[in-house]
């Protein structure tokens, strides 16, 4: 009986051992599959290899606008109601031309009143003069007391002072009457209208804006990266979108010493040489400036400046406050954030002057969704012609 139970116990132990072995195998397989799932697949990114466009020492270009060198508002020196406007936006005016008028009724009354006071003061002065002459003649004959002569002399001096005061008041009223007529003090073009007929304006309120004839400037805002290529007295080439095929010489006349607090750019004004009548105010301009020469102190820097690269604006990222792009390393397909120098901002592209090498792959899209060191899988853009340099 004992031998039979021992014979039945051996298969049970074998079954338990086989079950434990199978369970250990399942756990091992699960652990292996979990370890394989922990390694993420490389993220696909849109990137292309960039090639130098051969313009490392080409001129950096900045957008600008044609403006008059001098521009002033035209305003009345007295307040009143506008009853007439003789020029409109875009009209050419001459020096001394009447451009607007105020209602002169009140000014005419003030001028008439001041003239009447002047006439009365003049009459009083004539009478005081005649009385003084008589008293002086009688005083020589000792026919009047000295005190009476003094009173007459004092009355004459007072009448003369009143006449002078009335004359100044009459002249002021006459000037104020003339101020109801707005006259252009320089030849130029009306570039803005700030008041309309029938409107009551105060003294000094702008009615028109006048751009003077003569020197014409091209105004542009220079970024920090292009500031080194600009200096007062430097020459530049200017092309206008409205006049294709033509270029104009310009000279830097003024460069702002401080950056604008909002845009962080420096305002530059260039004077055009012989612009001609075809150049109109407000035209958009493209200013070509000589780029700074590359430094000879570093061989690596010279290698980076072997050419400039034109890439889509969507590739631009920032490392802190500096412009940067994501570069896919050829060795391990990992991402590297590379600081670059942007020499030109176009409508849809940017021109990179330093920071890239020929043949490096730059991420074009999704630059805000990737991280440094991330493994990626490069795929070409869906429409390569949209990203062509």
Automatic annotation (TrEMBL):
<dbReference type="Pfam" id="PF25917">
    <property type="entry name" value="BSH_RND"/>
</dbReference>
<feature type="signal peptide">
    <location>
        <begin position="1"/>
        <end position="30"/>
    </location>
</feature>
<feature type="domain" description="Multidrug resistance protein MdtA-like barrel-sandwich hybrid">
    <location>
        <begin position="77"/>
        <end position="208"/>
    </location>
</feature>
<dbReference type="Pfam" id="PF25967">
    <property type="entry name" value="RND-MFP_C"/>
</dbReference>
<dbReference type="GO" id="GO:1990281">
    <property type="term" value="C:efflux pump complex"/>
</dbReference>
<dbReference type="Pfam" id="PF25954">
    <property type="entry name" value="Beta-barrel_RND_2"/>
</dbReference>
<feature type="domain" description="Multidrug resistance protein MdtA-like C-terminal permuted SH3">
    <location>
        <begin position="310"/>
        <end position="367"/>
    </location>
</feature>
<dbReference type="InterPro" id="IPR058625">
    <property type="entry name" value="MdtA-like_BSH"/>
</dbReference>
<dbReference type="InterPro" id="IPR058792">
    <property type="entry name" value="Beta-barrel_RND_2"/>
</dbReference>
<dbReference type="InterPro" id="IPR006143">
    <property type="entry name" value="RND_pump_MFP"/>
</dbReference>
<comment type="similarity">
    <text>Belongs to the membrane fusion protein (MFP) (TC 8.A.1) family.</text>
</comment>
<keyword id="KW-0813">Transport</keyword>
<dbReference type="InterPro" id="IPR058627">
    <property type="entry name" value="MdtA-like_C"/>
</dbReference>
<feature type="domain" description="CusB-like beta-barrel">
    <location>
        <begin position="218"/>
        <end position="292"/>
    </location>
</feature>
<keyword id="KW-0732">Signal</keyword>
<protein>
    <submittedName>
        <fullName>Multidrug resistance protein MexA</fullName>
    </submittedName>
</protein>
<dbReference type="GO" id="GO:0015562">
    <property type="term" value="F:efflux transmembrane transporter activity"/>
</dbReference>
């Amino acid at each position: 009986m004992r031998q039979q139970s021992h014979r039945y116990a051996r298969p049970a132990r074998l079954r338990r051992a086989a079950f434990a072995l199978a369970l250990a195998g399942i756990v091992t397989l699960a652990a292996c599959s979990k370890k394989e799932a922990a390694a993420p697949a490389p993220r696909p990114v849109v990137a292309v290899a960039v090639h130098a466009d051969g313009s490392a020492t080409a001129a950096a270009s900045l957008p600008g606008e044609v403006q008059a060198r001098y521009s002033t508002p035209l305003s009345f020196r007295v307040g009143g109601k506008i009853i007439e406007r003789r020029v409109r936006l875009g009209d050419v005016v001459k020096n001394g031309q009447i451009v607007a008028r105020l209602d002169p009724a009140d000014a005419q009354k003030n001028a008439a009143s001041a003239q009447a006071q002047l006439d009365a003061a003049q009459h009083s002065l004539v009478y005081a003069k005649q009385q003084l002459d008589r008293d002086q003649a009688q005083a020589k004959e000792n026919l009047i007391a000295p005190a009476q002569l003094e009173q007459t002399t004092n009355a004459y001096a007072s009448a003369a002072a009143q006449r002078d005061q009335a004359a100044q008041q009459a002249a002021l009223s006459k000037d104020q009457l003339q101020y109801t007529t707005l006259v252009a003090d320089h030849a130029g073009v009306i570039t803005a209208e700030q008041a309309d007929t029938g409107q009551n304006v105060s003294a000094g309120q702008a009615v028109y804006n006048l751009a003077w004839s003569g020197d014409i400037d091209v105004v542009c805002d220079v970024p920090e990266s292009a500031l080194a290529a600009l200096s007062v007295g430097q020459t530049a080439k200017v092309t206008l979108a409205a006049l294709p095929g033509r270029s104009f010489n310009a000279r830097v006349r003024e460069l702002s010493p401080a950056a604008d607090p909002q845009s962080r750019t420096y305002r530059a004004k260039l004077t055009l040489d012989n612009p001609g009548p075809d150049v109109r105010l407000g035209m958009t301009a493209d200013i070509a400036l000589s780029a700074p020469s590359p430094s000879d102190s570093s061989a690596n820097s010279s290698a980076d400046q072997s050419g400039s690269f034109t890439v889509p604006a969507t590739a631009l990222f920032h490392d802190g406050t500096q412009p940067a792009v994501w570069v896919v390393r050829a060795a391990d397909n990992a991402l590297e954030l590379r600081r670059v120098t942007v020499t030109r901002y176009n409508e849809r592209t940017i021109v990179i002057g330093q920071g890239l090498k020929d043949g490096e792959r730059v991420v074009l899209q999704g630059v805000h969704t990737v991280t440094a060191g991330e493994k990626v899988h490069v795929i070409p853009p869906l429409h390569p012609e949209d990203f062509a340099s």
